Give the backbone structure.
Amino acid sequence: MTSETPSLHVEKSQSKLPAVSRKVQSLINLFWLYFGVILVIVQGFILPPLYVKFITPSLYGAWLATGNVLGWIGMVDPGISRILQQRTAHTFGRGETDTLGSVIGTGLFLGTLFALLPLFVFPFSGSIVGWLVHSKAEHTELTTAFNWALISMSLMIATFQPAAANLGLQRSSASGISYTTASALGIVVTYCMLQGGFGLVSLPVGLSARAVLMLVLNSLWMGDWCRKNLRGKVVINKDELRKYSALSTLTFIERIVTALLTQSDLVITARFISNETAVAYSMTGRAFEPIRLLSERMLPAFLPGLAHLSGEGNRERLQEIVARLIGVVSFVISVGAACVVAMNFAFVQLWVGKEYFFGERMTILFAMLAVCNILFSALAETTFAVGGVGPIEIMRVVEGVVRIVLQVVLFKLYGIIGIPLAGCIGMVLVSGYALPGISAQKLGINRRTQYWIVAENFLRCFVLMICGVITFLVLSQTIRVWTWLRFAGCSVVVGIVFTAIGLAISPGPRRELQILFRKLRGSKQ
Protein backbone atom coordinates (compact mmCIF):
# COMPACT_ATOMS: atom_id res chain seq x y z
CA MET A 1 0.00 0.00 0.00
CA THR A 2 1.58 3.25 -1.09
CA SER A 3 0.60 5.06 2.07
CA GLU A 4 3.25 3.15 3.97
CA THR A 5 6.70 4.68 4.34
CA PRO A 6 9.04 2.98 1.86
CA SER A 7 12.56 1.79 2.59
CA LEU A 8 15.50 4.06 2.00
CA HIS A 9 16.32 2.41 -1.30
CA VAL A 10 13.35 2.84 -3.55
CA GLU A 11 13.36 2.08 -7.23
CA LYS A 12 11.36 4.77 -8.93
CA SER A 13 9.69 4.56 -12.27
CA GLN A 14 10.85 6.95 -14.93
CA SER A 15 9.00 10.20 -14.55
CA LYS A 16 8.60 13.37 -16.52
CA LEU A 17 6.86 15.11 -13.67
CA PRO A 18 8.13 18.63 -12.91
CA ALA A 19 10.68 19.05 -10.15
CA VAL A 20 9.46 20.92 -7.08
CA SER A 21 11.06 22.52 -4.06
CA ARG A 22 9.29 21.17 -0.98
CA LYS A 23 10.74 23.92 1.17
CA VAL A 24 9.54 26.70 -1.12
CA GLN A 25 6.09 25.13 -1.53
CA SER A 26 5.75 24.61 2.22
CA LEU A 27 6.61 28.25 2.90
CA ILE A 28 4.18 29.43 0.22
CA ASN A 29 1.52 27.18 1.72
CA LEU A 30 2.29 28.55 5.17
CA PHE A 31 1.89 32.11 3.89
CA TRP A 32 -1.52 31.43 2.37
CA LEU A 33 -2.71 29.46 5.37
CA TYR A 34 -1.85 32.29 7.73
CA PHE A 35 -3.38 34.82 5.36
CA GLY A 36 -6.50 32.70 5.64
CA VAL A 37 -6.18 32.79 9.42
CA ILE A 38 -6.23 36.59 9.26
CA LEU A 39 -9.48 36.43 7.32
CA VAL A 40 -10.96 34.03 9.87
CA ILE A 41 -9.92 36.33 12.74
CA VAL A 42 -11.42 39.34 10.95
CA GLN A 43 -14.61 37.38 10.35
CA GLY A 44 -14.68 36.15 13.93
CA PHE A 45 -14.27 39.69 15.25
CA ILE A 46 -16.64 41.53 12.92
CA LEU A 47 -19.52 39.13 12.40
CA PRO A 48 -20.45 37.69 15.87
CA PRO A 49 -21.51 41.11 17.26
CA LEU A 50 -23.76 41.38 14.20
CA TYR A 51 -25.13 37.90 14.91
CA VAL A 52 -26.30 38.88 18.39
CA LYS A 53 -27.53 42.24 17.05
CA PHE A 54 -29.63 41.00 14.13
CA ILE A 55 -30.49 37.48 15.38
CA THR A 56 -32.26 36.76 18.66
CA PRO A 57 -30.21 34.83 21.25
CA SER A 58 -32.74 32.00 21.23
CA LEU A 59 -32.59 31.59 17.45
CA TYR A 60 -28.80 32.00 17.31
CA GLY A 61 -28.34 29.43 20.06
CA ALA A 62 -30.57 27.03 18.12
CA TRP A 63 -28.50 27.72 15.00
CA LEU A 64 -25.30 26.87 16.86
CA ALA A 65 -26.88 23.59 17.91
CA THR A 66 -28.03 22.80 14.35
CA GLY A 67 -24.49 23.59 13.23
CA ASN A 68 -23.41 20.65 15.30
CA VAL A 69 -26.14 18.52 13.74
CA LEU A 70 -24.73 19.54 10.36
CA GLY A 71 -21.38 18.32 11.60
CA TRP A 72 -22.93 14.91 12.17
CA ILE A 73 -24.43 14.96 8.68
CA GLY A 74 -20.97 15.85 7.39
CA MET A 75 -19.87 12.41 8.50
CA VAL A 76 -21.10 11.14 5.13
CA ASP A 77 -17.71 12.33 3.87
CA PRO A 78 -15.34 9.52 4.92
CA GLY A 79 -12.24 11.71 4.60
CA ILE A 80 -11.45 11.00 0.97
CA SER A 81 -9.68 14.36 0.60
CA ARG A 82 -7.12 13.55 3.33
CA ILE A 83 -6.29 10.27 1.64
CA LEU A 84 -6.23 11.94 -1.78
CA GLN A 85 -3.75 14.56 -0.60
CA GLN A 86 -1.46 12.04 1.10
CA ARG A 87 -1.51 9.55 -1.78
CA THR A 88 -1.09 12.24 -4.44
CA ALA A 89 1.96 13.74 -2.71
CA HIS A 90 3.41 10.28 -1.96
CA THR A 91 2.94 9.06 -5.54
CA PHE A 92 4.30 12.33 -6.91
CA GLY A 93 7.37 11.91 -4.69
CA ARG A 94 7.93 8.42 -6.08
CA GLY A 95 7.67 9.78 -9.62
CA GLU A 96 4.97 7.31 -10.69
CA THR A 97 3.33 9.22 -13.52
CA ASP A 98 0.83 6.57 -14.61
CA THR A 99 -0.33 5.83 -11.07
CA LEU A 100 -0.74 9.53 -10.28
CA GLY A 101 -3.52 9.97 -12.85
CA SER A 102 -5.56 7.14 -11.35
CA VAL A 103 -4.94 8.32 -7.78
CA ILE A 104 -6.33 11.77 -8.62
CA GLY A 105 -9.15 10.55 -10.84
CA THR A 106 -10.42 7.95 -8.40
CA GLY A 107 -10.29 10.37 -5.49
CA LEU A 108 -12.24 13.01 -7.42
CA PHE A 109 -14.88 10.46 -8.42
CA LEU A 110 -15.42 9.21 -4.88
CA GLY A 111 -15.43 12.73 -3.46
CA THR A 112 -18.11 13.84 -5.90
CA LEU A 113 -20.35 10.90 -4.98
CA PHE A 114 -20.11 11.64 -1.25
CA ALA A 115 -20.69 15.36 -1.89
CA LEU A 116 -24.23 14.60 -3.09
CA LEU A 117 -25.30 12.77 0.07
CA PRO A 118 -26.11 15.80 2.32
CA LEU A 119 -28.78 16.87 -0.18
CA PHE A 120 -30.84 13.78 0.67
CA VAL A 121 -31.49 15.29 4.13
CA PHE A 122 -33.66 18.09 2.64
CA PRO A 123 -37.02 16.35 3.25
CA PHE A 124 -36.21 15.96 6.95
CA SER A 125 -34.98 19.51 7.69
CA GLY A 126 -38.18 20.65 9.42
CA SER A 127 -38.19 17.67 11.76
CA ILE A 128 -34.50 18.04 12.58
CA VAL A 129 -34.75 21.68 13.68
CA GLY A 130 -38.17 21.28 15.27
CA TRP A 131 -36.85 20.01 18.59
CA LEU A 132 -34.68 23.13 19.07
CA VAL A 133 -37.24 25.93 18.56
CA HIS A 134 -40.87 26.35 19.58
CA SER A 135 -42.33 29.34 17.72
CA LYS A 136 -43.54 28.94 14.13
CA ALA A 137 -41.58 31.96 12.87
CA GLU A 138 -38.29 30.70 14.31
CA HIS A 139 -38.99 27.21 12.96
CA THR A 140 -39.49 28.56 9.43
CA GLU A 141 -36.37 30.73 9.52
CA LEU A 142 -34.21 28.01 11.03
CA THR A 143 -35.43 25.43 8.48
CA THR A 144 -34.56 27.73 5.58
CA ALA A 145 -31.11 28.39 6.99
CA PHE A 146 -30.59 24.69 7.62
CA ASN A 147 -31.42 23.86 3.98
CA TRP A 148 -28.94 26.46 2.75
CA ALA A 149 -26.36 24.97 5.11
CA LEU A 150 -26.92 21.55 3.51
CA ILE A 151 -26.23 23.08 0.11
CA SER A 152 -23.03 24.73 1.36
CA MET A 153 -21.92 21.46 2.96
CA SER A 154 -22.43 19.56 -0.29
CA LEU A 155 -20.43 22.15 -2.20
CA MET A 156 -17.63 22.15 0.38
CA ILE A 157 -17.26 18.35 0.29
CA ALA A 158 -16.97 18.60 -3.49
CA THR A 159 -14.36 21.35 -3.10
CA PHE A 160 -12.15 19.32 -0.76
CA GLN A 161 -11.05 16.95 -3.53
CA PRO A 162 -9.50 19.34 -6.10
CA ALA A 163 -8.06 21.40 -3.23
CA ALA A 164 -6.40 18.29 -1.78
CA ALA A 165 -5.08 17.32 -5.22
CA ASN A 166 -3.51 20.76 -5.67
CA LEU A 167 -1.77 20.48 -2.29
CA GLY A 168 -0.57 16.96 -3.07
CA LEU A 169 0.82 18.21 -6.39
CA GLN A 170 2.78 20.85 -4.42
CA ARG A 171 0.73 23.69 -5.93
CA SER A 172 0.39 25.70 -2.76
CA SER A 173 -0.45 29.00 -4.43
CA ALA A 174 -3.37 27.44 -6.31
CA SER A 175 -4.97 26.19 -3.13
CA GLY A 176 -4.08 29.33 -1.16
CA ILE A 177 -5.43 31.82 -3.66
CA SER A 178 -8.62 29.83 -4.05
CA TYR A 179 -9.22 29.62 -0.30
CA THR A 180 -8.48 33.23 0.60
CA THR A 181 -10.37 34.72 -2.34
CA ALA A 182 -13.43 32.58 -1.65
CA SER A 183 -13.27 33.25 2.10
CA ALA A 184 -13.21 37.00 1.50
CA LEU A 185 -16.25 36.65 -0.74
CA GLY A 186 -18.08 34.66 1.93
CA ILE A 187 -17.41 37.33 4.57
CA VAL A 188 -18.63 40.12 2.30
CA VAL A 189 -21.81 38.24 1.34
CA THR A 190 -22.63 37.41 4.98
CA TYR A 191 -21.97 40.98 6.16
CA CYS A 192 -24.05 42.58 3.40
CA MET A 193 -26.96 40.19 3.94
CA LEU A 194 -26.98 40.76 7.71
CA GLN A 195 -26.99 44.51 7.20
CA GLY A 196 -29.71 44.05 4.59
CA GLY A 197 -32.01 42.40 7.11
CA PHE A 198 -31.90 38.82 5.82
CA GLY A 199 -31.26 37.47 9.33
CA LEU A 200 -30.06 33.95 10.03
CA VAL A 201 -30.04 32.78 6.41
CA SER A 202 -27.16 35.21 5.77
CA LEU A 203 -24.74 32.81 7.45
CA PRO A 204 -25.21 29.69 5.27
CA VAL A 205 -25.65 31.72 2.07
CA GLY A 206 -22.24 33.29 2.71
CA LEU A 207 -20.78 29.81 3.18
CA SER A 208 -22.36 28.66 -0.08
CA ALA A 209 -20.87 31.59 -1.99
CA ARG A 210 -17.45 30.74 -0.57
CA ALA A 211 -17.78 27.08 -1.51
CA VAL A 212 -18.82 27.80 -5.12
CA LEU A 213 -15.83 30.04 -5.78
CA MET A 214 -13.41 27.60 -4.09
CA LEU A 215 -14.72 24.73 -6.19
CA VAL A 216 -14.39 26.64 -9.46
CA LEU A 217 -10.89 28.01 -8.79
CA ASN A 218 -9.40 24.78 -7.42
CA SER A 219 -10.84 22.75 -10.29
CA LEU A 220 -9.38 25.13 -12.88
CA TRP A 221 -5.91 25.06 -11.27
CA MET A 222 -5.90 21.27 -10.93
CA GLY A 223 -7.23 20.68 -14.45
CA ASP A 224 -4.54 22.90 -15.96
CA TRP A 225 -1.74 20.95 -14.20
CA CYS A 226 -3.13 17.56 -15.19
CA ARG A 227 -3.57 18.65 -18.80
CA LYS A 228 0.05 19.79 -19.02
CA ASN A 229 1.78 17.01 -17.08
CA LEU A 230 -0.48 13.96 -17.31
CA ARG A 231 -1.80 14.69 -20.79
CA GLY A 232 -5.32 14.51 -19.39
CA LYS A 233 -4.90 10.93 -18.18
CA VAL A 234 -6.99 11.34 -15.03
CA VAL A 235 -8.92 8.09 -14.79
CA ILE A 236 -10.93 5.94 -12.38
CA ASN A 237 -9.09 2.73 -11.55
CA LYS A 238 -10.44 -0.40 -9.86
CA ASP A 239 -7.25 -1.05 -7.93
CA GLU A 240 -7.29 2.51 -6.65
CA LEU A 241 -10.94 2.13 -5.65
CA ARG A 242 -9.97 -0.83 -3.48
CA LYS A 243 -7.10 1.09 -1.90
CA TYR A 244 -9.29 4.11 -1.21
CA SER A 245 -11.98 1.83 0.22
CA ALA A 246 -9.56 0.16 2.63
CA LEU A 247 -8.13 3.46 3.89
CA SER A 248 -11.39 5.42 3.86
CA THR A 249 -13.14 2.75 5.95
CA LEU A 250 -10.79 3.58 8.81
CA THR A 251 -11.04 7.33 8.29
CA PHE A 252 -14.84 7.05 8.04
CA ILE A 253 -15.14 5.27 11.38
CA GLU A 254 -12.78 7.80 12.94
CA ARG A 255 -14.83 10.69 11.53
CA ILE A 256 -18.06 9.25 12.91
CA VAL A 257 -16.67 8.98 16.41
CA THR A 258 -14.89 12.35 16.24
CA ALA A 259 -17.93 14.16 14.86
CA LEU A 260 -20.24 12.65 17.48
CA LEU A 261 -17.77 13.82 20.08
CA THR A 262 -16.83 17.32 18.89
CA GLN A 263 -20.30 18.24 17.67
CA SER A 264 -22.09 17.26 20.86
CA ASP A 265 -21.18 20.02 23.31
CA LEU A 266 -23.47 22.77 22.00
CA VAL A 267 -26.31 20.34 21.32
CA ILE A 268 -26.10 19.05 24.91
CA THR A 269 -26.00 22.62 26.21
CA ALA A 270 -28.91 23.83 24.08
CA ARG A 271 -31.06 20.76 24.68
CA PHE A 272 -30.47 20.08 28.36
CA ILE A 273 -29.75 23.58 29.67
CA SER A 274 -30.84 26.41 27.30
CA ASN A 275 -30.11 27.99 23.92
CA GLU A 276 -28.84 31.13 25.69
CA THR A 277 -26.37 29.04 27.69
CA ALA A 278 -25.11 27.53 24.43
CA VAL A 279 -24.36 31.04 23.15
CA ALA A 280 -22.38 31.93 26.31
CA TYR A 281 -20.51 28.61 26.09
CA SER A 282 -19.62 29.33 22.46
CA MET A 283 -18.59 32.96 23.04
CA THR A 284 -16.35 32.08 25.99
CA GLY A 285 -14.38 29.65 23.85
CA ARG A 286 -14.30 31.82 20.72
CA ALA A 287 -11.03 33.57 21.62
CA PHE A 288 -9.24 30.23 21.35
CA GLU A 289 -10.22 29.93 17.69
CA PRO A 290 -7.51 32.25 16.27
CA ILE A 291 -4.95 30.70 18.63
CA ARG A 292 -5.94 27.23 17.46
CA LEU A 293 -5.75 28.33 13.82
CA LEU A 294 -2.33 29.94 14.27
CA SER A 295 -1.08 26.70 15.80
CA GLU A 296 -2.66 24.03 13.65
CA ARG A 297 -2.47 25.80 10.27
CA MET A 298 1.30 25.49 10.44
CA LEU A 299 1.06 21.73 9.94
CA PRO A 300 -1.02 21.58 6.73
CA ALA A 301 1.62 23.79 5.11
CA PHE A 302 4.22 21.05 5.55
CA LEU A 303 2.17 17.84 5.38
CA PRO A 304 2.15 17.58 1.55
CA GLY A 305 5.92 18.03 1.59
CA LEU A 306 6.30 15.37 4.28
CA ALA A 307 4.24 12.90 2.27
CA HIS A 308 6.29 13.75 -0.84
CA LEU A 309 9.50 13.28 1.16
CA SER A 310 8.29 9.93 2.51
CA GLY A 311 7.83 8.86 -1.11
CA GLU A 312 11.53 9.50 -1.63
CA GLY A 313 12.35 7.49 1.52
CA ASN A 314 14.53 10.03 3.37
CA ARG A 315 13.81 9.10 7.02
CA GLU A 316 16.57 11.15 8.61
CA ARG A 317 15.21 14.32 7.06
CA LEU A 318 11.68 13.33 8.08
CA GLN A 319 12.74 12.91 11.71
CA GLU A 320 14.39 16.33 11.76
CA ILE A 321 11.45 18.17 10.19
CA VAL A 322 8.83 16.49 12.40
CA ALA A 323 10.77 17.30 15.58
CA ARG A 324 11.13 20.96 14.56
CA LEU A 325 7.45 21.26 13.62
CA ILE A 326 6.21 19.75 16.89
CA GLY A 327 8.44 22.11 18.89
CA VAL A 328 7.21 25.24 17.13
CA VAL A 329 3.54 24.19 17.29
CA SER A 330 3.90 23.47 21.01
CA PHE A 331 5.40 26.92 21.57
CA VAL A 332 2.65 28.76 19.67
CA ILE A 333 -0.30 26.99 21.33
CA SER A 334 1.28 27.28 24.79
CA VAL A 335 1.89 31.03 24.57
CA GLY A 336 -1.44 31.67 22.86
CA ALA A 337 -3.52 29.64 25.32
CA ALA A 338 -1.82 31.31 28.28
CA CYS A 339 -2.59 34.76 26.82
CA VAL A 340 -6.27 33.86 26.41
CA VAL A 341 -6.45 32.55 29.98
CA ALA A 342 -5.09 35.89 31.17
CA MET A 343 -7.25 38.19 29.00
CA ASN A 344 -10.42 36.31 27.98
CA PHE A 345 -12.60 37.75 30.75
CA ALA A 346 -11.87 41.29 29.56
CA PHE A 347 -12.18 40.40 25.87
CA VAL A 348 -15.63 38.81 26.09
CA GLN A 349 -16.88 41.65 28.28
CA LEU A 350 -15.83 44.28 25.71
CA TRP A 351 -16.72 42.22 22.67
CA VAL A 352 -20.27 40.95 23.30
CA GLY A 353 -20.98 41.70 26.96
CA LYS A 354 -20.10 40.16 30.31
CA GLU A 355 -23.34 38.15 30.34
CA TYR A 356 -21.77 35.94 27.64
CA PHE A 357 -18.69 35.06 29.71
CA PHE A 358 -18.96 31.58 31.21
CA GLY A 359 -16.27 32.13 33.83
CA GLU A 360 -12.52 31.71 34.26
CA ARG A 361 -12.77 28.06 35.25
CA MET A 362 -14.35 27.27 31.87
CA THR A 363 -11.68 29.36 30.13
CA ILE A 364 -8.92 27.34 31.81
CA LEU A 365 -10.56 24.08 30.74
CA PHE A 366 -10.91 25.37 27.18
CA ALA A 367 -7.20 26.23 27.26
CA MET A 368 -6.26 22.76 28.50
CA LEU A 369 -8.45 21.20 25.81
CA ALA A 370 -6.86 23.37 23.11
CA VAL A 371 -3.33 22.45 24.21
CA CYS A 372 -4.07 18.71 24.30
CA ASN A 373 -5.90 18.85 21.00
CA ILE A 374 -3.21 20.76 19.11
CA LEU A 375 -0.20 18.88 20.49
CA PHE A 376 -1.63 15.42 19.92
CA SER A 377 -3.07 16.44 16.56
CA ALA A 378 0.32 17.75 15.43
CA LEU A 379 2.01 14.46 16.21
CA ALA A 380 -0.86 12.44 14.71
CA GLU A 381 -1.03 14.44 11.46
CA THR A 382 2.71 14.23 10.83
CA THR A 383 2.57 10.48 11.45
CA PHE A 384 -0.43 10.22 9.11
CA ALA A 385 1.49 12.07 6.40
CA VAL A 386 4.49 9.73 6.49
CA GLY A 387 2.35 6.60 6.14
CA GLY A 388 0.76 5.83 9.52
CA VAL A 389 -2.80 6.08 8.22
CA GLY A 390 -4.21 2.87 9.68
CA PRO A 391 -2.73 3.02 13.21
CA ILE A 392 -3.59 6.71 13.61
CA GLU A 393 -7.23 6.24 12.59
CA ILE A 394 -7.66 3.20 14.86
CA MET A 395 -6.20 5.14 17.77
CA ARG A 396 -8.54 8.06 17.11
CA VAL A 397 -11.56 5.76 17.07
CA VAL A 398 -10.59 4.31 20.45
CA GLU A 399 -9.95 7.79 21.82
CA GLY A 400 -13.31 9.02 20.56
CA VAL A 401 -15.19 6.19 22.25
CA VAL A 402 -13.36 6.81 25.53
CA ARG A 403 -14.11 10.54 25.35
CA ILE A 404 -17.80 9.99 24.60
CA VAL A 405 -18.16 7.72 27.62
CA LEU A 406 -16.29 10.22 29.82
CA GLN A 407 -18.38 13.07 28.45
CA VAL A 408 -21.63 11.40 29.46
CA VAL A 409 -20.35 10.48 32.91
CA LEU A 410 -18.72 13.82 33.71
CA PHE A 411 -21.65 15.84 32.36
CA LYS A 412 -23.94 14.02 34.78
CA LEU A 413 -21.51 14.55 37.65
CA TYR A 414 -20.33 18.14 37.04
CA GLY A 415 -22.67 19.63 34.44
CA ILE A 416 -21.44 21.42 31.34
CA ILE A 417 -17.94 21.87 32.74
CA GLY A 418 -17.53 18.10 32.45
CA ILE A 419 -17.54 18.30 28.62
CA PRO A 420 -14.12 19.95 28.10
CA LEU A 421 -12.79 18.05 31.12
CA ALA A 422 -13.75 14.76 29.47
CA GLY A 423 -11.89 15.80 26.32
CA CYS A 424 -8.66 16.49 28.21
CA ILE A 425 -8.75 13.26 30.20
CA GLY A 426 -9.68 11.13 27.18
CA MET A 427 -6.85 12.49 25.02
CA VAL A 428 -4.24 12.04 27.74
CA LEU A 429 -5.37 8.44 28.41
CA VAL A 430 -5.39 7.30 24.77
CA SER A 431 -3.22 9.61 22.64
CA GLY A 432 -0.80 10.21 25.49
CA TYR A 433 -0.25 6.46 25.79
CA ALA A 434 -0.39 5.21 22.18
CA LEU A 435 0.55 8.08 19.88
CA PRO A 436 4.25 8.57 20.74
CA GLY A 437 4.83 4.86 20.15
CA ILE A 438 3.10 4.87 16.75
CA SER A 439 5.00 7.98 15.69
CA ALA A 440 8.34 6.56 16.81
CA GLN A 441 7.75 3.39 14.80
CA LYS A 442 6.85 5.23 11.58
CA LEU A 443 9.72 7.69 11.89
CA GLY A 444 12.25 5.04 12.93
CA ILE A 445 13.31 6.61 16.23
CA ASN A 446 13.52 5.42 19.83
CA ARG A 447 10.11 5.10 21.46
CA ARG A 448 11.24 6.31 24.87
CA THR A 449 12.76 9.39 23.29
CA GLN A 450 9.45 10.25 21.65
CA TYR A 451 7.54 9.88 24.93
CA TRP A 452 10.00 12.20 26.62
CA ILE A 453 9.64 14.81 23.85
CA VAL A 454 5.84 14.82 24.31
CA ALA A 455 6.18 15.09 28.10
CA GLU A 456 8.59 18.04 27.80
CA ASN A 457 6.18 19.92 25.55
CA PHE A 458 3.31 19.44 27.99
CA LEU A 459 5.47 20.57 30.90
CA ARG A 460 6.25 23.84 29.11
CA CYS A 461 2.54 24.32 28.41
CA PHE A 462 1.75 23.80 32.09
CA VAL A 463 4.30 26.44 33.16
CA LEU A 464 2.81 29.02 30.79
CA MET A 465 -0.73 28.13 31.85
CA ILE A 466 0.17 28.90 35.47
CA CYS A 467 1.51 32.26 34.30
CA GLY A 468 -1.80 32.94 32.58
CA VAL A 469 -3.85 32.16 35.69
CA ILE A 470 -1.65 34.38 37.88
CA THR A 471 -1.95 37.24 35.39
CA PHE A 472 -5.74 36.90 35.32
CA LEU A 473 -5.92 37.05 39.12
CA VAL A 474 -3.80 40.21 39.18
CA LEU A 475 -5.63 42.01 36.35
CA SER A 476 -9.12 41.10 37.55
CA GLN A 477 -8.34 42.64 40.95
CA THR A 478 -6.51 45.75 39.76
CA ILE A 479 -8.53 46.89 36.71
CA ARG A 480 -12.25 47.37 37.35
CA VAL A 481 -13.28 49.20 34.16
CA TRP A 482 -12.02 47.92 30.80
CA THR A 483 -11.74 49.84 27.53
CA TRP A 484 -10.47 48.58 24.18
CA LEU A 485 -7.38 50.78 24.51
CA ARG A 486 -6.61 49.41 27.98
CA PHE A 487 -7.25 45.88 26.75
CA ALA A 488 -4.91 46.33 23.78
CA GLY A 489 -2.13 47.71 25.99
CA CYS A 490 -2.38 44.90 28.53
CA SER A 491 -2.58 42.28 25.76
CA VAL A 492 0.61 43.51 24.13
CA VAL A 493 2.51 43.47 27.43
CA VAL A 494 1.17 40.02 28.37
CA GLY A 495 1.98 38.67 24.89
CA ILE A 496 5.57 39.93 25.00
CA VAL A 497 6.18 38.60 28.53
CA PHE A 498 4.67 35.18 27.80
CA THR A 499 6.59 34.90 24.51
CA ALA A 500 9.82 35.64 26.35
CA ILE A 501 9.01 33.01 28.99
CA GLY A 502 8.11 30.51 26.27
CA LEU A 503 11.39 31.08 24.43
CA ALA A 504 13.34 30.82 27.67
CA ILE A 505 11.97 27.33 28.41
CA SER A 506 11.74 26.09 24.78
CA PRO A 507 15.18 25.44 23.19
CA GLY A 508 13.74 24.29 19.86
CA PRO A 509 11.80 27.46 18.97
CA ARG A 510 14.68 29.51 20.35
CA ARG A 511 17.03 27.83 17.85
CA GLU A 512 14.53 28.41 15.04
CA LEU A 513 14.46 32.10 15.90
CA GLN A 514 18.26 32.26 15.97
CA ILE A 515 18.43 30.59 12.55
CA LEU A 516 15.93 33.09 11.18
CA PHE A 517 17.92 36.05 12.55
CA ARG A 518 21.14 34.69 11.04
CA LYS A 519 19.48 34.34 7.64
CA LEU A 520 18.04 37.83 7.80
CA ARG A 521 21.42 39.24 8.83
CA GLY A 522 23.12 37.37 6.01
CA SER A 523 20.62 38.60 3.41
CA LYS A 524 21.35 42.23 4.35
CA GLN A 525 25.09 41.85 3.90
